[in-house]
Amino acid sequence: MSNLLTRRLALLGQDTHRAVLTGLRGIERETLRVDATGHLASTPHPAALGSALTHPQITTDYAETLLEFITPAEADIATTLVKLDGIHRYAYSKLGNELLWSESMPCQLPAEEDIAIAWYGSSNMGMLKHVYRRGLALRYGKAMQCIAGIHYNYSLSEDLWRVLAGHEGKPARQSAMAYQSEAYLATIRNFRRYSWLLMYLFGASPALSSSFLRGRPHKLERLSDDTLYLPYATSLRMSDLGYQNDAQSGLSPRENCLDSYVAALTKAVNQPYEPYAKLGTKQNGQWVQLSTNVLQIENEYYATIRPKRVIRTGERPIQALCSRGVQYIEVRCMDVDPFEPVGISLPTGRFLDTFLLFCALEESGPISEQDGARYTDNFARTVKEGRRPGLMLNNSEGEISLQQWGRQMLERLAPVAALLDRHHGGGEHAAALADAARKLDDPDLTPSARVLAALREHGGSFGAFGLAQSQKHAAYFRSHAPSAAEAAYFDQLATASLAEQAEMERTSTGNFDDYVAAYRASNLCHSTPDCD
């Protein structure tokens, strides 16, 4: 444990400061709608759930059938999960015979032309979201748009940053906003250093439906007629089989400071990419992508973690970061846990809170290009071979076994868990570390190993296992229908969202071509990075 972490833990453990440990947690859970046989649903987004464009908690991601449930931000992850459970229960009350797919990797998929791109209505904003997704289909294929995950949104109290700044003495000319932004960037750098551990402990996609690859070359092994896998993989979703392409392969925004990060993304949304330029933005008079640049918009950048700021109407994400700094971080590498009805468990949330607070408080120097390559390689090894006996990773001192490094990490996390347990009362954070230790000692206890064991019980079929789990979760939610008050609350949200979309369509002015041009020309961040 570094001296900085020791000092910060002692400071925050004082009775006068312990209250600042309260931050906010939110979850975005993606899940495919499938029919009773486990095939992709062919129906549009259910109107009974409200407008996918304007509903604050129930929307769609890239595909029309890929639901996204968004919780409010809560001070305790236990409360967040209760809210997520409530969204699921309400959704099931409106889904009829359809099911929510229990896996990160998609069910058996139909032909590309039969996968519907998410539709958001005829307003200019709705069409912008739809055309952006057309561009994703063009660049990555529609099968990629059916991958689901858990996004964990995490913030610490602004009071915590003020306490640290006051105790450690921030530079006199640095604003509180700048200090907080740089602290979150430091958190992200540590996350990159150590996130391989999350993939070992929580990766849950070691197999996939053979229909997913669409004939692409691969080095997977065959488990059954409809299933491909890697025997020691933890998360094929986060491997090079996931949401990646050649254009993004050279894009590595530097997290050494906010200016550097936003400058890289600003360049990517303005830099033409020849293969996309050959496709053009329109085909047969129809928009097929918003631009021919490396990224259509900054959100296209696929990262395991992102700095974030709640955006205002008409504002772009980079604009929000430039003008008001980093407000929270979004962890994007978590697989859906197929053994949990809502896709994530409370112990997993407790571990993530411990891990992320550690990343925020631990020493975090700048990342060199060589460092970044090493972190990427550790992550890649873990997602494809994490349970391989004797697997070696590379820390700053050289080669080390995953198990040995993992145990060292748990020792460093232990005092952070103890601090959180004193704050919350009880011992749930320490218990989450103990569970992680058991997984390091016995890889068969990891979700990825449990998935493979369950697959074999279902004849090696990814589809059969996924359907069985989906049916099991559906039975749970349908037996716990929303209360009258809960139903009324979500009914009101649905009605209001539909009215809001209708009003947007009624008042939308100007043609779409001009709207896209104005959006692309909107001011991003043009500062020169002052860090490397």
UniProtKB/TrEMBL annotation:
Single GO MF annotation: ATP binding
Keywords: ATP-binding, Glutathione biosynthesis, Ligase, Nucleotide-binding
Catalytic activity: L-cysteine + L-glutamate + ATP = gamma-L-glutamyl-L-cysteine + ADP + phosphate + H(+)
Enzyme class: ligase
Origin superkingdom: Bacteria
Pathway: Sulfur metabolism; glutathione biosynthesis; glutathione from L-cysteine and L-glutamate: step 1/2
Similarity section: Belongs to the glutamate--cysteine ligase type 1 family. Type 1 subfamily.
PANTHER family assigned: GLUTAMATE--CYSTEINE LIGASE
Protein's recorded name: Glutamate--cysteine ligase
Gene designation per UniProt: gshA
